[in-house]
């Protein structure tokens, strides 16, 4: 089985939520991503790039926090160059 080279966490957030709630959710998601990476044997502080994506879903927003390393990181960086 191939080793993963990316991870994603998605949250649905009401647009009516307070700024405090939105910032807390953002920080929690970043924390959980770090734990997820450690779980799969990746150091979240070395060789990993992170990207946020927000999609409008009417009264809500879909937030996706993604981490890329190895081959996936190289592909993302090539696309952004």
Q: Please, how many helices? A: 2
Which ranges are low-confidence, i.e. pLDDT below 50, for 5 or more consecutive residues? none
SSE run: EHEEH
Give the overall form: globular
Give the DSSP E fraction (strand runs of 2 or more residues): 25-35%
Main sheet strand line-up: 1-3-2
From the helix content, strand content and strand pairing, which structural class follows?
Answer: alpha+beta
**DSSP summary, beta strand count:** 3
Helix content: 25-40%
Main sheet characteristics: 3 strands, antiparallel
Mean pLDDT: 94
Question: Mind telling me the C-alpha Rg?
Answer: 14 Å
Kindly report how far apart the N and C termini lie: 31 Å
Any overview of this molecule?
- The structure is a single chain.
- This protein is an alpha+beta fold and 81 residues long.
- Helices cover 40% and strands 33% of the residues.
- The chain contains 2 helices and 3 strands; from the N terminus they run E-H-E-E-H.
- The protein has a 3-stranded antiparallel sheet.
- A hairpin with a 2-residue loop joins strand 2 (49-57) and strand 3.
- The protein is globular and about 40 Å long.
- The model has no long low-confidence stretch (mean pLDDT 94).
Give me the secondary-structure topology.
Blueprint: E1 6-14, H1 19-39, E2 49-57, E3 60-68, H2 70-80
Antiparallel strand pairs: 1-3, 2-3
Descriptive keywords:
single chain, 81 residues, alpha+beta, 3-stranded antiparallel sheet, 2 helices
A few lines on this structure:
With 81 residues, this protein is an alpha+beta fold. It contains 2 helices and 3 strands.
